[in-house]
Amino acid sequence: MRKGIIIGSAMTVLILAVGGAYWLLNKSDTTKTGKNMMYEQKRVLDPVNKQLKTLDISKLEAKEKLVIGADVNQIQRLIATNKLNYEELVGIYLNRIKKYDQNGPKLNAITEINPNVLDEARKLDQHASANKASLHGMPVLLKDNIGTEKMPTSAGAVALKDWVIGKDATIVKNLKASGALILGKTNMSEWANYMDPRMPSGYSGKTGQDKNPYLDATPSGSSAGSATAVTSDFAAVTIGTETNGSIISPAIAQSAVGFKPSRGMVSGELVIPLSRHFDTPGPITRTVKDAYLTTSALINQPIKAELSKEGLKGKRIGILFDADSAISKNIISDLEVAGATVVKGMKLEENQQDFTTFDDILKADFKTDLNQFLEKNQAPMKDLAAVIAFNKLDEARNMKYGQGNLEESEKNEATVASIDQRADDLIKKASKRIESLLTSNKLDALVDLNADSLFLVPIAGNPELTIPAGYEKDGQPVGMTFVGPNKADESIFEMGYAYEQISKNRKSPVISADNSK
After folding, report:
1. What digits encode the pLDDT tens for the residues 112-137?
2. Spatial separation of the C-alpha atoms in residues 430 and 437, rounded to whole Å
3. Closest listed residue to residue 354, CA positions, set 10, 3, 22, 132
4. pLDDT (average), residues 136-153
């Protein structure tokens, strides 16, 4: 989250990862979640209950502690040593979704459950493979804008809540090719948080309000449900999408690892779009190595990075934040202990024109790109105008917080050619500023605290890796983010892994079945 822009009559605002993008909001609107609303629980609970009926719940709960906070490699070792099998692993996650997502604190991070996932896990147990990919048998949750063959894909909208596209997105095909199990889908800020500036992060008309498991605070960003699900141990890993901040921001707010790949590295085919110029999928996980392994699965090829505690030795790291708090001082200390040279006082300049241009591009892209997507995939809504009209049929449910962004986008008449040119110019300008800062100071990476200064980075398309950095006194998670040169994804993983191993900051949230915060 980013502070410090003054607009209008000296109104302090936050620029949040909303609309898959940073947006100007009054600070009072962003400190907590929206009201605890849950819609259509049966669509999650029915397939959960039906599958759990075939399992011994007491046995699952006895093994649950083995899974909590475990990374992919640890889970695979449990399975390899016969302490766990894939059927039990899926059962544990389904049971946790029932206890904590749909009951207890009602985190409301899940929108869809694969009704066949338990049978798919049993087949893997019956046909053991000696040469398993890293994600083989790992239950994965997808953000609800990622196309799937048999489950609905809605972008959180009531208008599309039952729409089954009928084919898998490229990244889903790649996950399945690696042996991963698609467990279901996660709640998201409706239309990648491009519904209306008044809508809280993590809210969708389809499912209701997603909640931060750490405290009564925003889950942040449009991939809010993916961050909630992975940090609450509802799946081994989750997948989010980002336009500007919506992987990084919820990962920070919910003490997860978020990786936004260099643009173009991961396919966005068959993902409901916000902007063709800026959208990208990426993993949200509990550890850096899990993000690394998941990214390899998303692109269906290995990433050539060497993950070790030595990954920061000899690196020059530019610091974008002021070291005026205990957490920020600890970050710098950990970087230096890991062998990095810290260069303080770095600034990534941005201006109001950058925000205005970005806003104009999103306004035009959303209408153009969504209309093309809906038409190409024969959606029940033919275009954005039809969605807007549908929402007005039941304003209390379909557009509880308004649909101002949708209506503004529908009015937009900019030509595709003009927007392409403006986007190209903004991308080049953002790239030049970042690369100049890195090159002129001979830096291997930049590091920021809570993504306060990173608005231009996803515009430029550079890789970002957020890692838990500690907790405020009230329990609010804090994250630090590595930014590397464009296409330097491997080195970002190496540096991030080394920092994580030195710092070891992440703590799982304390979630109780009788907790109804």
Report:
1. 999 999 999 999 999 877 678 899 99
2. 11
3. 22
4. 98
Interval 467-509: pLDDT, tens: 999 999 999 999 999 999 999 999 999 999 999 999 999 999 9
Distance CA 202, CA 165 (A): 23
CA 232 – CA 216 distance, rounded (Å):
15
Q: Cα(first)–Cα(last) distance of the chain, in Å? A: 24
pLDDT digits (tens, 9 = 90+) for 381-397: 999 999 999 999 999 99
High-pLDDT (> 70) share of the chain, %: 92
Please, how many CA atoms are within 13 Å of residue 200, restricted to the half-sphere of its CB? 24
Q: Which amino acid is present at 257? A: V
The amino acid occupying position 31 is: T
Q: Is the pTM of this model over 0.90?
A: yes
d(CA 139, CA 153): 18
The secondary structure of the chain in percent helix, strand, coil, rounded to multiples of 5, reads 40, 15, 45
Q: How far apart are CA 369 and CA 175, in angstroms?
A: 25
The token duo for 448 is 């920021």
344's enclosing H/E stretch is none
Catalytic sites, residue numbers: 143, 222, 246
Q: Count CB atoms within 10 A of the CB of residue 149.
A: 15
**What is the DSSP secondary-structure string of 144-193?**
TTB--SSS---TT-GGGTT---SS--HHHHHHHHTT-EEEEEE--SHHHH
The tokens describing 386, both together, are 């039809």
